[in-house]
Amino acid sequence: MSTAMPAFEYDIKDVSLAPQGKRRIDWAEREMPVLRLIRERFAAEQPLKGVRLVACAHITTETANLARALQAGGADALLIASNPLSTQDEVAASLVSDYGIPVFAMKGESTDTYRRHVQTALDFVPDIIIDDGSDVVATLIKERPEYTKNITGTTEETTTGIVRLRAMQEAGVLTFPSIAVNDAQTKHFFDNRYGTGQSTLDGIIRATNILLAGRALVVVGYGWCGKGVALRARGMGANVVVTEIDPIKAVEAVMDGFRVMPIASAAAIGDIFVTVTGNRHVIDREHFAAMKDGAIVCNSGHFDLELNLVALREMSEAPVQVRPFVEEYRTGSGRRIIVLGEGRLINLTAAEGHPASVMDMSFANQALSVEYLVKNKGTLEPGVHLLPPEVDQEIASLKLRALGISIDALTAEQLEYLSSWETGT
Ligand SMILES: NC(=O)c1ccc[n+]([C@@H]2O[C@H](COP(=O)([O-])OP(=O)(O)OC[C@H]3O[C@@H](n4cnc5c(N)ncnc54)[C@H](O)[C@@H]3O)[C@@H](O)[C@H]2O)c1
Q1: Whose CA is nearest to atom 18 of ligand 1?
Q2: What is the DSSP letter of 334?
Q3: What is the pLDDT of residue 7?
Q4: Which of 8, 48, 89, 345 makes an SS bond possible with 75, Cβ 3.0 to 4.6 Å?
Q5: How does residue 38 score in pLDDT terms, banded at 50, 70 and 90?
Q6: What's the gap in Å between 225 CA and the centre of ligand 1?
Q7: Which of 194, 260, 276 to probe ligand 1 with, by most ligand atoms within 8 A of CB?
Q8: Protein residue whose Cα sits closest to atom 38 of ligand 1
Q9: Is the C-beta atom of 203 inside 6 A of ligand 1?
Q10: Please, which residues have CB within 8 angstroms of residue 58's CB and are 6 or more apart in sequence?
């Protein structure tokens, strides 16, 4: 809980963890060269001067570096957690103590505390909201409609949040512009695929220390995240099975070399299950009932409703915690089902989320989206917007430069050829 040290309010686990958090934030920063360049430009140009900004995000080392960039640009920022289990308490402590940024987040906070922090964020009366999953924006619209007139715009980090924003737009309640950061190519191509791919397996391995080689690993959903999880699991020797509801994604998985089948069939053969759909109850009562003894089940989609854990609890004795983030359910038939991270994003509960190198591009998109909203205040239509494609190109170019990789440019002859139609066979 809060101590009296810094002269502003905050709600974190322990401010004395700050030195450890500061070292970790600095370590991540080494892998975030694009965001560093943006921070340096922001410090010189002050594009966010006077902006009141709330960020609802996983409170990780990478988010801390985003917060530093926004602060350098002149924003008055407040941070809350976007998930009760993803906060890195030492990072929250350093943000409060070393950077003077109010944070309201603790790893393991209750749902009530999580909701209270959302209210605290709205009490701050922000101009800009950075959201991850759309909980702050949904609460604003439902519970504080009178505050929406203060909003310059919002940005949304993840696929699930954008699905919700589009539903708000459809319902006619989204009265301000919202940038779909996830839909930038330099976000989902890399963060969702390579970030989730690696960090989800990292979470499973840290929680269980199991060998993936030779195991049947079922990936539920072959979207951007699912492709990454399947690709990396195959790389570690797992025998990967994919389930889908979209025929195009299913064909893609087949041609990528994976076995594809309905979840009803996969349930009986899987050793490990990972859901990444953004959808509800994709592993349901009948699937738990069909699983082998010792099956391991986890989720890396945004919300903890992909696994029907209510049904599993009804089918089982009270779960026993066998390791941190590992709970064993013994069903009526005596089989054991192992659930990781309480069904919340496993990469952020049992591991550290995506590596900094990939969040560099995601958060470059966030920082530039905030700048774009401020620059275009009052001129953007209400609704969901994409960042202009040249911003994507710019972020990719900066990333290449930081990696020391150069690429070719079109020659004048090629440019002319590509813009003409006369030359054929
Ligand atoms: N763990 C993380 O750090 C992280 C990172 C990025 C995104 N996410 C979240 O992961 C989820 C997936 O994101 P994405 O970008 O891959 O989305 P996506 O839309 O690209 O993919 C989701 C896939 O799930 C499939 N699907 C839906 N219902 C299904 C069902 N019942 N059975 C099987 N497949 C089903 C869809 O057809 C689609 O192909 C979202 O909730 C997103 O917010 C998590």
Answers
A1: 223
A2: S
A3: 84
A4: 48
A5: very high
A6: 6
A7: 276
A8: 223
A9: no
A10: 81, 82, 83, 86, 87, 132, 348, 353
pLDDT value at residue 1: 42
CA of 35 to the centre of ligand 1 (A): 26
Q: Whole-angstrom Cα distance, residue 155 to residue 136?
A: 11
Say yes or no to pLDDT of 292 above 90. Answer: yes
Whose tokens are 């990292």? That residue is 202
Percent of the chain with pLDDT over 90: 97
Q: Residue 355: enclosing H or E segment and its boundaries?
A: none
- What's the rounded Cα separation, in Å, for the pair 115 and 108? 13
Task: Extract the tokens encoding 31.
Answer: 């892998």
Q: What is the mean pLDDT of residues 220-233?
A: 98
Q: Higher confidence at residue 103 or residue 423?
A: 103
> Which runs of consecutive H residues, i.e. helices, occur in 46-103?
61-72, 89-97
Q: Whose CA is nearest to atom 20 of ligand 1?
A: 223
What whole-number distance in Å separates Cα of residue 267 and Cα of residue 95? Answer: 43
Residue 91, CA atoms < 13 Å, CB-side half-sphere = 28
Ligand 1 atom nearest the C-alpha of 226 is 16
pTM (two decimals): 0.94
CA 294 distance to own-chain centroid = 29
The pLDDT of residue 49 is 98
CA separation (Å) from 21 to 92, 102, 223, 244, 343?
A: 7, 15, 33, 40, 26
For the residues 232-251, what does the mean pLDDT come to? 98
Q: What is the CA radius of gyration of the chain?
A: 22
Distance 126 CA to ligand 1 centre (A): 30
Average pLDDT, the chain: 96
The residues near 143 (Cβ < 8 Å, ≥ 6 apart) are 122
Strand-pair partners of 79: 55, 103
193, exposed or middle or buried, with CB in 10 Å at 0-12, 13-18, 19+?
buried
According to DSSP, the β-strands at 320-323 and 326-330 are: antiparallel
Contact between 340 and 354 (Cβ < 8 Å): no
CB of 228 within 6 A of ligand 1: the answer is no
Please give the number of the atom of ligand 1 that sits closest to the Cα of 227.
16
Mean pLDDT of 250-272: 98
